[in-house]
Write a structure and sequence with these properties.
With about 550 residues, the chain is mainly beta. It is built from four helices and 48 strands. Among the domains are: about 150-210 and about 245-340, no CATH class; about 345-435, Immunoglobulin-like (Sandwich), CATH 2.60.40. Strands 9, 10, 15, 16, 17, 18, 19, 20, 24, 25 and 28 form an eleven-stranded mixed β-sheet that branches. Strands 1, 39, 40, 43, 46, 47 and 48 form a seven-stranded mixed β-sheet that branches.
């Protein structure tokens, strides 16, 4: 930040005075002035939104703690230039220095580790290859309010100097829409050990959470995500990022008091039921007995996926499909294929828009790629401008597959409807795909032009700041916050609002939250605290003017080096 403070001081001094040998303070050069500046040294290409994985709860987990690790944890900042990033109301804006270039040859790599009391730990890997904006929901699983497709088994067994005193088995129940079970068996005499290899004795608490592949809620809540960026392959080699095609996920944990169990003297047995409608991407057919499914373990501290072997699909005595395998250490376990041919960061697919919009009035869309045959989703939803000839590079997507581009009503997996679907196209690496969106017509949407300004209070001047930040909105029908638009140096445009509806708006700036509640899309002026919102309407255009946001003193002090 020191370099930016020096830069800001230089700009101020060059605008207002030229002097030598004078010790002038900010207050002295702004005495009697209302100073209007633009301090825009960070950009925010990534927002993480931490939410409960059950749609019945629209609140973010209480007492949420988020830790960033990975190769580039020191390249990211808060919007006011601090490196101690923590979410505010479940939203964490990840900013980078504007002079920091993010490219395929210099990507931004982060490991996001989120924890909250009563929730399953969540680990997500993030790689950004450019600065195009990404909004990533991080769905966290409440252990007392499990989402559909997820069930949990809990219990305990006893160990002594000879190991487990008897055979112990635990199986997940068929609740929350579950059809398949998962189970674990510890055989008598098995020693359980901590991370140092020391034997543990006494009661051993067991918690096993099984995620199926039938429910979107379950798939969206996988604690390690479906996109694997940090992957160790069969021969210990580092693999390119890949997207899993899952047959099920297990988060298995054991504890002796407050000590976590890590290894066993002999393997323990795992059994997982397999959904017979699962499509094996290696054959293109639904799974069959004799199919092999790769097994991957997830380190919940580093987000590293490691290949652990393969298991074979078979039928149990009831005629149901299942796999059985043994493990000698505890981590989280995923039964996954992945798409073999991918367009990596070296040779992405570029989507180019064909539309009737030719200028900045073009709407933006929340777009995702889906398999035209199976409906499987690839990657995360991305924001794309519908201005004619605009483009978006897509990395690590399957090659030589028939796909469609869908436009969504929300980036959040909840309240998310498909509002447009393109014609089918095929992917080829390093090629462009032209997507015709001329038939897409946003319904009853307003074109919004807006200005936003804040105030730094000084002893002798009010310093007007035109911020760069994201503005969020939600409506009563959904209840989940979603991004609206980027405020770029005090201005933003949007086509995401509808005439006659009522919304809440929120801005995070300088580690402070600004709320505007129950705002109708009609001409109005609203005073709320230290700031004011004015809306004017003119033939389908809404003019927003947000003034006098009170910027926190600490941020203002950092901004001007006071």
């Amino acid at each position: 930040m020191k370099r930016h403070i020096i830069l800001a001081t230089f700009l101020l001094s060059s605008v207002f005075f030229t002097t030598t040998c004078k010790d002038l303070t900010l207050d002295s050069i702004t005495d009697g002035l209302a100073l209007n500046i633009n301090f825009d040294v960070f950009r925010t290409p990534l927002i993480l939104h931490f939410v409960d994985a059950s749609p019945a709860n629209t609140n973010s987990p209480a007492n949420l703690s988020v830790r960033l690790a990975g190769a580039d944890e020191n390249r990211v900042y808060t919007t006011d230039g601090r490196q101690a990033l923590q979410p505010v109301d479940g939203i964490m804006e990840v900013s980078v220095d504007r002079i920091d270039t993010i490219t395929p040859d210099n990507p931004l790599e982060l490991t996001v580790i989120a924890e909250a009391p009563g929730y399953l730990k969540t680990v997500q890997q993030v790689i950004l290859y450019d600065t195009s904006f990404q909004f990533r929901p991080v769905n966290m699983v409440s252990l007392t309010n499990l989402p559909n497709g997820v069930s949990m088994a809990q219990g305990a067994f006893t160990t002594n100097s000879s190991g487990a005193s008897s055979n112990a088995a635990f199986a997940t129940p068929l609740t929350n829409g579950k059809v398949e079970r998962a189970s674990v068996t510890v055989r008598s005499g098995t020693q359980v050990r901590d991370a140092m290899g020391s034997n543990l004795s006494g009661p051993i608490d067991v918690r096993m959470v099984h995620f199926d592949n039938r429910s979107d809620e379950s798939l969206n809540a996988f604690p390690g995500g479906m996109i694997a960026n940090n992957v160790i392959g069969p021969n210990g080699q580092r693999l390119d990022p890949l997207q899993f095609v899952t047959a099920g996920f297990i988060a298995l944990d054991m504890f002796a008091g407050g000590t976590e169990v890590r290894t066993f003297s002999r393997p323990i047995e795992i059994s997982v039921g397999i959904n017979p409608n699962t499509v094996n991407p290696e054959t293109g057919l639904t799974v069959r007995t004799g199919d092999q499914i790769p097994i991957w373990s997830l380190d919940d501290e580093t987000g590293t996926w490691t290949f652990e072997g393969e298991t074979v699909v078979e039928r149990n005595p009831l005629g149901q499909m299942e796999v059985n395998f043994e493990i000698d250490h505890l981590s989280w376990w995923n039964l996954d294929w992945f798409y073999g041919n991918r367009c990596t960061w070296r040779n992405p697919v570029t989507v180019r828009i064909d539309s009737d919009y030719e200028d900045f009035t073009a709407p933006t869309a929340i777009a995702r790629l889906v398999d035209a045959n199976t409906g499987a989703h690839y990657g995360w939803p991305r924001q794309i401008s519908l201005r004619n000839n605009s483009s978006l590079a897509l990395y690590n997507v399957p090659s030589d597959r028939n796909l469609r581009l869908q436009f969504l009503s929300s980036a959040s997996p909840f309240c998310q409807n498909v509002i447009y679907e393109s014609a089918m196209f095929s992917t080829a690496c390093q090629n462009e795909v032209m997507v015709d969106t001329r038939n897409f017509q946003p319904n009853n949407q307003l074109f919004v032009q807006a200005t936003v300004s804040g105030i730094c209070r000084s002893e002798s001047a009010d310093i007007k700041v035109t911020p760069s930040a994201w503005i969020f909105f939600r409506d009563a029908e959904c209840g989940y916050w979603n991004y609206l638009s980027y405020i770029n140096r005090g201005r933003f445009f949007s086509n995401r609002l509808e005439l006659g509806r009522t919304y809440d708006f929120r801005i995070h700036y300088g580690n402070r939250r600004y709320n505007f509640s129950d705002i109708p899309m009609q001409a109005t002026t609203i005073m709320e605290g230290d700031y004011m919102l004015t809306i004017e309407l003119d033939q389908g255009t809404a003019f927003f003017n947000i003034e006098d946001l009170r910027i926190p003193d600490q941020y203002c002090d950092n901004l001007f080096g006071r």
